[in-house]
Amino acid sequence: xxAAAALPFVCDAVSFVASGVLLAYAVPAxxxxxxxxxxxxxxxxxxxxxxxxxxxxxxxxxxxxxxxCQAMVFGVLALYVTAQLHLNAAGYxxxxxxxxxxxxxxxxxxxxxxxxxxxxxxxxxxxxxxMAGYLVMAATSSALVAVSALTAETAxxxxxxxxxxxxxxxxxxx
Length: 174
Hints:
Helix content is 85%, strand content 0%. It is mainly alpha-helical. The termini are far apart.
């Protein structure tokens, strides 16, 4: 039993190693680290740059808020699904798998939404849909309604993250 319980973690670790190997071949070699600079000086330079750029501070704050709210929900999700929705362990797994499809939906639709309504509206919409999803989850004891709300929330977070990163890439210098 203990080997079976560890299997998902081992598979995840192997996937990270495989990803690292693939990235080592996919990413072109750089000139290496700059000479005469320390990690601390680079961190301070990055913090000074962030402090000087209002848009980047706003984007960092929005990203942090979205991540914090999502972490709060996922931190108690197992308790919510088992106690409020009365699902067993298999039901919890299915719930998470279905809700995870929102990531794929969000990734597939992010580009079109961004082109159609713009990055700012994508970011605002992501926050609004995520908030609505959380409120629906809080108000329901239906697994179908809850998983639909969480699927919409995960899709919205992906759309918002794509818009935030796109904006950061187009406005940030080297």
